[in-house]
């Protein structure tokens, strides 16, 4: 949820039109999306699984709120105070308790060893091309973090510009690339501590190979854009009052930066900002909450230096604008749930002069990019990417030839350049970056992993099943060829179902490893996502959020009914909004699952909007402050639907102090409640990182440890030895 940074890595599942990051095993944060197939782990058990021990004692308070005349018990409200000595002591005790189980699992070291072998390979990101120079992030096999490089020419030598390894002893500080000036001489990048959303913005003189004195303070930035002449930088900063756009003139004190847009917008609004390639226009896009049901577009002519002009602010629809010369091209779902493309001539921007150049079709428009004077429109057709190239008048040019059925993202280029780059991945195709010649339509591999991948041994299927209300829902299945459908295969079911985010095919060493261990991975395309346009999204939000949980539960029931697995061999996994998903599924159908992995989750849905960026998500979930919305939120809020004595499945919660997006109090409170109320003897564990959090940038060594914990927990509970 929210901004996950700007670095376009080749092993990251970044969805067009959204910055939400999804992964099969959420603690991985998509860092292990590219890897090799591992041989099956030994099936020989080397030691007995750990015996159950009761969890640490947790103080329970007789505390309750009254909302809309309803008494709402909250016995672990005191755990919301993250800095209190009692909470810190409780966290330490929980970590020790979880480690006492996980460290004794015989499979853990073998899983970790395989992950080390698979993950520690060179990885590279989609480049930003400027004036014959190519700027990109790369993490070499022996490194923990991504380093920012520059290459002179397509075939030139890679030169290190910014290496974050020396910025912290524990490798908890990482860097993100934001923008590069048009002449390739000035680089703007962010410095992130742990997994926080907040970053410090720095400016780097490429010629001098040194940081400038100019910098921006630690904050959440929703957009940073350099002026082409390097005279200054526009940026959008999110704070307690909401998002505001500022201008920083080079060489001046950032404390004196001038606010240019955003006054009057509250914290439930987000504002993105960008300067057109020629430096003529400044575009500000206002999102009415993260659901983005309403978007405003405002434009300022930086040559005339007049006030901002409204392009659109009175339509309840999404508008995603991009600038190409003196025209603005917008993808919108206005009167077109599957999306269309409109063209606005900035010499005559009145709405009656707008032109539809790419009409709505049966396939959903997932995103659009501009490069080489043309439009690249990325469609989802039954959850598979197709990219079509159009002239500015809407004339079809060609389809981009893709290597297989899969997912395309990135498509980065300049309006005045003849080259663009895109990322392709699929369940059976490791993520590869292509360089595309726009005029001729030629393409070549720019970067790929040099790993031996035998994907011929993988079976990949897309099936359709029926949800509770009769809706047909697609689901991807990945497993080893030859697996017998005897109803006894260890299976991980994962999903997201929210924020218009699509779960498209992606390659993951986790899935390959799990398959070679005899496991099945199931990825349903739940309502609430964007796979089938805005109608599919709206069918899983507000009062219809229960549809998402019903879709997920129906997927589990289909897997059992079709002899893939059974409830004693079925685990569910989800993070962030996906953490809410698995939390709700667990409390609604505890009989259906053997194990739950729930990371960085939202679980107390009656109070989520009171913390961190929660107010920004009210447009997706609603708010318990509203009497009508309170009713349906309370009905599914996981924390408020745990019942004493019910036999809940084994559960592993993962969160950390530096999650400044989803408050870690959700996992703390839910872990305490489930430990106290569950009638089963199944473990409820909380792994809590005191340094790292939700966002990207964590060192690979730490991520390997986290994934080893998640995988070994699943192996333990599902009997994978």
Q: How would you portray this structure in words?
A:
This protein is α+β, with helices and mostly antiparallel strands. The chain has a domain at 26-38 and 60-118 and 453-718: Alpha/Beta hydrolase fold, catalytic domain (Rossmann fold), CATH 3.40.50.1820. The chain has an eight-stranded mixed sheet, with helices on both faces. The chain has a seven-stranded antiparallel sheet with strand order 8-9-10-11-12-13-14, with no helix packed on it. Strands 3, 4, 5, 6 and 7 form a five-stranded antiparallel sheet that branches. The protein is globular. Mean pLDDT is 89; it is low at 1-47.
Question: In terms of topology, how is this protein built?
Answer:
Blueprint: E1 64-67, E2 70-73, H1 85-102, H2 106-119, E3 123-124, E4 128-130, E5 133-139, E6 147-152, E7 158-162, E8 173-180, E9 186-193, E10 199-205, E11 210-226, E12 232-239, E13 242-249, E14 258-261, E15 269-275, E16 281-288, E17 295-301, E18 309-312, E19 319-324, E20 327-332, E21 340-345, E22 355-358, E23 364-371, E24 374-381, E25 384-390, E26 396-399, E27 407-413, E28 419-426, E29 429-437, E30 443-448, E31 458-466, E32 472-480, E33 491-494, H3 509-516, E34 520-524, H4 534-538, H5 546-561, E35 570-575, H6 577-588, E36 595-599, H7 618-621, H8 627-636, E37 650-656, H9 665-677, E38 684-689, H10 700-718
Parallel strand pairs: 33-34, 33-35, 35-36, 36-37, 37-38
Antiparallel strand pairs: 1-2, 3-5, 4-5, 5-6, 6-7, 8-9, 9-10, 10-11, 11-12, 12-13, 13-14, 15-16, 16-17, 17-18, 19-20, 20-21, 21-22, 23-24, 24-25, 25-26, 27-28, 28-29, 29-30, 31-32, 32-34
């Amino acid at each position: 949820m929210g901004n996950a940074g700007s670095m376009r890595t080749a092993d990251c599942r970044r969805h067009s039109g959204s910055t939400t990051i999804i992964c099969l095993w959420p603690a991985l944060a998509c860092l292990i999306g590219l890897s090799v197939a591992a041989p099956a782990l030994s099936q020989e058990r080397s030691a007995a699984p750990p015996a159950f021990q009761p969890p640490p004692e947790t103080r329970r308070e007789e505390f309750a709120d009254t909302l809309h005349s309803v008494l709402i018990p909250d016995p672990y409200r005191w755990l919301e105070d993250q800095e209190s000595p009692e909470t810190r002591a409780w966290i330490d005790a929980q970590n020790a308790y979880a480690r006492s189980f996980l460290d004794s699992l015989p499979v853990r070291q073998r899983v970790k060893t395989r992950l080390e072998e698979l993950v520690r390979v060179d990885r590279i990101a989609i480049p930003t091309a400027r004036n014959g120079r190519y700027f990109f992030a790369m993490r070499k096999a022996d490194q923990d973090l991504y380093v920012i490089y520059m290459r002179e020419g397509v075939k030139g030598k890679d030169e290190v510009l910014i290496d974050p390894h020396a910025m912290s002893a524990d490798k908890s500080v990482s860097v993100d690339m934001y923008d590069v000036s048009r002449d390739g001489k000035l680089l703007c990048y962010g410095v992130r501590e742990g997994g926080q959303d907040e970053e410090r913005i720095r400016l780097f003189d490429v010629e001098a190979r040194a940081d400038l004195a100019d910098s921006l303070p630690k904050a959440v930035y929703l957009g940073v854009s350099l002026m082409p002449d390097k005279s200054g930088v526009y940026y959008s900063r999110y704070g307690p009052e909401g998002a505001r756009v500022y201008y920083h003139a080079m060489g001046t004190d950032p404390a004196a930066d001038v606010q240019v847009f955003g006054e009057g917008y509250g914290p439930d609004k987000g504002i993105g900002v960008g300067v057109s390639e020629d430096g003529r226009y400044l575009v500000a896009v206002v999102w009415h909450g993260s659901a983005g049901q309403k978007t405003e577009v405002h434009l300022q002519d930086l040559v005339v230096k007049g006030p901002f002009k409204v392009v659109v602010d009175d339509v309840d629809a999404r508008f995603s604008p991009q600038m190409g010369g003196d025209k603005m091209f917008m993808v919108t779902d206005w009167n077109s749930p599957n999306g269309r493309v409109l063209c606005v001539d900035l010499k005559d921007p009145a709405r009656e002069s707008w032109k539809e150049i790419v009409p709505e079709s049966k396939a959903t428009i997932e995103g659009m990019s501009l490069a080489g004077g043309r439009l690249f429109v990325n469609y989802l057709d039954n959850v598979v990417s197709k990219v079509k190239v159009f002239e500015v008048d809407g004339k079809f040019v060609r389809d981009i030839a893709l290597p297989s059925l899969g997912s395309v993202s990135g498509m980065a280029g300049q309006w005045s350049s003849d080259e663009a780059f895109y990322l392709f991945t699929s369940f059976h195709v490791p993520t590869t970056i292509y360089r595309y010649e726009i005029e001729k339509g030629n393409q070549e591999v720019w970067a790929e992993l040099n790993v031996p991948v035998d994907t011929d041994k993988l079976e990949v299927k897309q099936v359709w099943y029926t949800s509770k209300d009769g809706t047909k829902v697609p689901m991807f299945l990945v497993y080893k060829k030859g697996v017998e459908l005897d109803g006894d295969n260890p299976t991980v079911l994962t999903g997201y179902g929210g924020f218009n985010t699509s779960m498209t095919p992606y390659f993951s060493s986790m899935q390959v490893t799990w398959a070679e261990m005899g496991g099945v991975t199931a990825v349903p395309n739940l309502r609430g996502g964007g796979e089938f346009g805005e109608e599919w999204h709206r069918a899983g939000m507000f009062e219809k959020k229960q549809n998402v949980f019903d879709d997920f539960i129906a997927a589990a029931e289909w897997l059992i009914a079709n002899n893939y697995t059974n409830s004693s061999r079925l685990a569910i996994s989800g993070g962030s909004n996906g953490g809410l998903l698995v939390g709700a599924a667990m409390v609604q159908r505890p009989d259906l699952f053997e194990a739950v992995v729930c990371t960085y989750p939202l679980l107390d849905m009656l109070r989520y909007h009171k913390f961190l960026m929660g107010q920004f998500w009210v447009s997706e979930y609603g708010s318990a402050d509203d009497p009508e919305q309170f009713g349906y939120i309370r009905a599914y809020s996981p924390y408020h639907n745990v019942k004493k004595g019910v036999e809940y499945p084994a559960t592993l919660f993962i969160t950390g102090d530096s999650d400044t997006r989803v408050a870690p109090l959700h996992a703390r409170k839910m872990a305490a409640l489930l430990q106290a109320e569950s009638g089963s003897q199944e473990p409820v564990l909380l792994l809590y990182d005191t340094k790292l959090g939700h966002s990207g940038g964590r060192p690979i060594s730490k991520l390997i440890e986290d994934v080893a914990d998640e995988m070994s927990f699943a192996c333990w509970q599902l009997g994978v030895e």
